Amino acid sequence: MTATTAAPARTYQLHTRPAWRRILLTREMAIIALLVLVIVVALAGVRNFDSPLTVTYLLRDTAPILLIALPMTLIIITEEIDLSVASIVGLTSVTTGVLAQGGWPFPLAAAAAVVVGLACGFVNGFLVSVVGLPSLAVTIGTLALFRGIAVGLLGTTAITDFPEFWSDLAKANIPGTPVPAIMIPFVVLAIVFAVLLHFTPFGRSLYAIGLNKDAAQFSGIDVGRTKFILFVLSGGVAGFAGVYFTLLYSNARGDNAMGMELLVIAAVLLGGVSIFGGRGALHGVIAGVLLIGTLGSALRLAGITSDIINVITGILLVLSVVSSSVLAWIQNRRAAALGRKNGRRAQSPD
Amino acid sequence: MFGHSRKGRLGVTATALALGVALVASGCSGTGSDDGGSGAEGGGGDANLAITFLPKNLGNPYFDTSNAGGEEAIEEFGGTYEEVGPTEASPTAQVSYVQTAAQQGVGALVISANDPEALCDSLDEARSAGVKVVTFDSDTNPECRDLFINQATAEGIAKAQIELISEQIGDAGQIAVLSASANATNQNAWIELMEEELAANHPDIELVEVVYGDDDDQTSFDKTAALLQTYPELKGIISPTTVGIAAAARYLSTSEYKGKVALTGLGTPNQMREYVEDGTVTSFALWNPADLGYLAAYAAQALITGEITGEEGDSFEAGKLGSYEVGEGAVVLLGDPFVFNAENIGEFDF
Questions:
Q1: What sign does the CA torsion over A242, A75, A28, A299 have?
Q2: Does domain B47-151+289-335 sit in CATH 3.30.565.10?
Q3: For B27, which of A45, A251, A323 is closest by C-beta distance?
Q4: pLDDT for position A14
Q5: What are the C-alpha distances in Å from A45 to residues B28, B44, B83, B223?
Q6: If both were cysteines, with which of A97, A153, A206, A248 could A159 make a disulfide (CB 3.0 to 4.6 Å apart)?
Q7: Most B-contacting residue of A304, A321, A330, A345 (CB-CB within 10 A), to test interface
Q8: Could you tell me which CATH class the domain B154-286 is placed in?
């Protein structure tokens, strides 16, 4: 921010390492490497993993998680959380179903569902930013609230009749490839979010908020407005995921996507985003989602039961969180020792 | 940050190695069982007798019993048995296991569906990949499967339970129903028929409420407690699900209502034995789930070998159970419900 005055006079050679090391030796790259390793091992050791169907099913089923993980990453970087996303998927799924059954043209019903998602995000954002409540408490509340409305609207019934064109489209592959068509909107959204997070002042301000929201506020960032925007974005994306989920399973039910918020958050944390805010990148998160999905797919094909798959995924998550905490502690000790040795040499904030 | 990341990478690499080892190990065991499969195929001609059982969820004693019956049958005719399933009973969680079976190219999938419609698309995909689909316990829409093994007619089950409760409460007073999940196909059908039977033949019995324990022991237990508090005049509870009736019996047996509030429904002898012996429960009904799984496995084999196609009037041999005929709508009926009471419960062990 003050680069014009300071840049020519100062160098940071003692702190920086060569560009290749800065890019390759990161937690994000480690998760990507782990993903590649799992894929290689599964290709070699698990029968039927090498079929194109694996790619289709994997991407198709993880698409809602991939989508929702994008705004969730931004929210967690600001040291907030949105636990209501799966309930928004449920509510927008029900909305899609009820409106489609009520004779609305499907695109209109889908658009209305996305608007409902945005409205849910608006409620979360309002309570967090304007009223000033902690997002953990707010979204635990709206998790129950949105789910309650969803189940209340449809009761014990499910709506299963959707226009064939749209439900086929949700399950279609990009012609000539085993890649589901849902990956097109996902890639577009991923690029938008990546640019937003990593290449705009808005995105950089999220890290500042996550590291120290008071300092961010005093340096001219409108913290409340920023968080509000993020929660509305999260609701909108969850709404879109809700429409997709409905079409994918041809099924609008109040309990759709129950518990998915935990899968999303687990993948985001696995992908290297700090739950304490201020750190994380989207490529790591995408790799985190795919890692959990691929591992599940490979283990299922190997005939491993779901409880064991949950145990393995859980251990992976705990190890990844523990390893980063332990190593951060070691790093701090080393930096402190180094700091004493080098006198008043500054340390990076994290 | 960068120094930390380098250490972070070491930690994640260690995690990766541990995981890789786990995956290789599991991959090997998976391949091992598949090899067993091809061996069996060699013995039984060119038919692919790899049969996968997919229950509503794992860790459910009812499905443990039915699947053990299936395994017994598959051993008799020299196929390969595998059991997979989600930890929670949700249709979307079952989809990935249907997909896995399609990828593995198993001969047949024997499934108890968590939703009649939501699994249809994935089952269609599996069938076009050559997998025969047999539903048992809970059916899907008829066009989504090759054969349904019906444990008993819905009318028979509903009537048997109403008869039991009316005998036990003297054909008058308030009763309630403790069901499985609100979307459970067969429970909902039975409850509807129970209501019709009550209206037609038992005008003095009033069904005050249907509550849902979600086939979860603790939820069912809590719902039973809530029912008894809400309706002090309650004379009887029908729980048409094995998890529900056992949880309700456990609550009643230690409460002041023991022996005063009648409990009947569908349960297994091993679960209900202590409550029948201590007088909490007089009698309850069920078919033999082991026979159901056994019959489903033989039906799957008959479909794989081409002995039957699912046409009405097709008949096949089902080992110790004898000969069965396919009825209207590609349904095979196991038989009438069986009533268990203090006199006969000792003869059963499942």
A1: negative
A2: no
A3: A45
A4: 54
A5: 6, 27, 20, 46
A6: A97
A7: A304
A8: alpha beta
Inter-chain touch B183–A253, beta carbons under 8 Å: yes
Measured between CB atoms, does A307 come within 8 Å of chain B? yes
Q: How many CB atoms lie within 10 A of CB B218?
A: 10
A34-64 pLDDT tens trace: 999 999 999 999 988 998 889 999 999 999 9
CA-CA distance, A340 to B1, in Å (whole number)? 18
The dihedral formed by the CA atoms of A201, A203, A206 and A207, expressed in degrees to the nearest 10 = -90
Q: What tokens were used for B288?
A: 């033999």
CATH number of the domain within which A234 lies: 1.10.3470
Average pLDDT value for chain A: 88
Is pLDDT above 80 for A85?
A: yes
Phi and psi at A279, nearest 5°, equal -145, 140
Interface check for A323 against chain B (CB to CB < 8 A): the answer is yes
Report chain B's mean pLDDT, rounded to a whole number.
85
Q: Is A152 on the interface with B (CB under 8 A)?
A: no
Closest chain A CA to residue B94? A306
Residue A104 lies in a domain: yes
Distance from CA of A23 to the nearest CA of B (A): 10
Q: Which residues of A touch B50 (CB under 8 A)?
A: none
A91 is a domain residue:
yes
Task: Tell me whether domains B47-151+289-335 and B154-286 share a fold.
Answer: yes
**Cβ-defined contact of A30 to B59 (cutoff 8 Å):** no
Residue of B nearest to A18 (CA): B2
Q: How many residues does chain A have?
A: 350
* Selection from A164, A188, A177, A152 nearest residue A247 by Cα: A164
CA dist., res. A224 & res. B158, Å (int): 58
pLDDT at B35: 39
Listed by number, the residues of chain A in 182-241 with a beta carbon closer than 8 Å to a beta carbon of chain B are: none
> Given CB atoms, is B12 within the 8 Å cutoff of chain A?
yes
**What amino acid is encoded at A126 in this protein?**
F
Interface ipTM: 0.76
Q: How confident is the model at residue B1 (pLDDT cuts 50, 70, 90)?
A: very low
> What is the number of other CB atoms lying within 10 angstroms of the CB of residue B170?
12
Would you kindly state where each structural domain of chain B is located, as residue ranges? 1-45, 47-151+289-335, 154-286
Contact indicator for B85, B97 with CB cutoff of 8 Å: yes
Q: Is A335 on the interface with B (CB under 8 A)?
A: yes
Query: Nearest 5 degrees, angle CA A283-CA A285-CA A287?
Result: 70
In a domain, A350, yes or no: no
